[in-house]
């Protein structure tokens, strides 16, 4: 069948997938169940389980496996202390200063505290339009950008939280940028 159609028989595919799954299970960092599993002797005649069948396949094909632990993803909070600076560099009264001046002060603070050549700027936002029952989350930086619609009855705050969570997940894929990233809400 393989020669004619270039498709493997289903039984072979199942065996192959079972061995791959077993190898993945052996590499789960915090789980000791699969690594220390021992076949218990029983007097009953029973059907082989998953581990027994995979062990039999590995023996038949002489597959030697020395499981190496899988790559551990780092939590950005564990890498460096998270800093939160919700205020501008100058003390101001928001109602006494115009919108353009506030925008200028915010950009000045942003660029002096976190210069773009040393920091990855990630901008996040959660939003909800009046009259609609769901919200959305958006994020943008030089590495990625996306918009995520949220489920019904979600709020703008849910959007903010989802935007931050998504930014951290996507940032985790870029390990070299973890230590120099700043998230703006």
Keywords:
four-stranded mixed β-sheet, elongated, 185 residues, 6 helices, 15% strand
Q: Outline of this structure?
A:
The protein has 185 residues and is an alpha+beta fold. It is built from 6 helices and 4 strands. The mean pLDDT is 78.
Topology order in helix (H) and strand (E) letters: HHHHHEEEHE
Helix content: 25-40%
What oligomeric state is this? Answer: single chain
> How many distinct folded domains?
2
In which order are the strands of the major sheet placed? 3-2-1-4
Main beta-sheet annotation: 4 strands, mixed
Low-confidence stretches: none
Mean pLDDT value: 78
Q: What integer value in Å does the Rg equal?
A: 27 Å
Number of helices: 6
Total beta strand runs: 4
Question: Care to describe what's here?
Answer:
The chain is of the alpha+beta class. The protein has helices at 2-5, 10-26, 50-60, 76-79, 99-113, 156-172; strands at residues 120-127, 134-140, 145-152, 181-184. A 4-stranded mixed beta sheet has the order 3-2-1-4, with helices on one face. The longest helix has 17 residues, at 10-26. The chain is elongated, with a radius of gyration of 27 Å. The termini are far apart. The model has no long low-confidence stretch (mean pLDDT 78).
Write the layout of secondary structure elements.
Elements: H1 2-5, H2 10-26, H3 50-60, H4 76-79, H5 99-113, E1 120-127, E2 134-140, E3 145-152, H6 156-172, E4 181-184
Parallel strand pairs: 1-4
Antiparallel strand pairs: 1-2, 2-3
